[in-house]
Amino acid sequence: MSRKTLLTAAELEEMPNVDSVRTELDEGELITMPPAGEEHGFCELGIAAILYAFVKQHKLGRVYGADTGFTLKPDIVRAPDVAFVRASRVDNLRSRGFAKGAPDLAVEVFSPGDSVPQLMRKVKQYFAAGCHTVWIVYPERKEVDVHEASGAERLLTGRATIDAPELLPGFSVPISEFFE
Asked: Which terminus in the chain has less CB density within 10 A, N or C?
């Protein structure tokens, strides 16, 4: 019987960086992902730009890109496509390696290679580590599924606007801007 080699977040931090492969750690198992496709990358950058501009203007915290690892547990490291951490929590998460803890807002952009059960597993892991809100963005359908740690969930479509009043006071953007 063969056994999987399981890793810790600290061991993952020590691994050499391979530019063309993004990695996460799921209960010690190394998960590798190819680079994002064109539509995914465009949507991801658009969301990051919108959030970054708003967060910077209002001095609310930090916005992180897809290469940032967040250690949710010693054997779980996730790298959301976009993440936001409130100013009051930034210093507690900062480290020389991966951020120590969950972001307040994690954004996952759905790719053709993703599965809904896989994304729901990530959502549960984010919440178990203290995340407040997760947005799952579906570029092809032009929809955003908003999940909150409270258990609230809403699907935004068409001309709906997205907000996060507890995290981003005053932020309200039509979801169509995520796809333009």
From this structure: N
pTM for the whole structure: 0.88
* Under 8 Å between Cβ of 109 and 43: yes
pLDDT at 4 over 90: no
- What are the residues whose beta carbons fall under 8 Å from the beta carbon of 120, sequence distance 6 or more? none
Tokens (6 digits) for 171:
């932020």
Least confident of 19-23, 83-87, 154-158: 19-23
Please name the residues in contact with 169: beta carbons below 8 A apart, sequence gap of 6 or more.
58, 60
Please enumerate in sequence order all residues whose Cβ is within 8 A of that of 116, keeping only pairs 6 or more positions apart, or say none: none
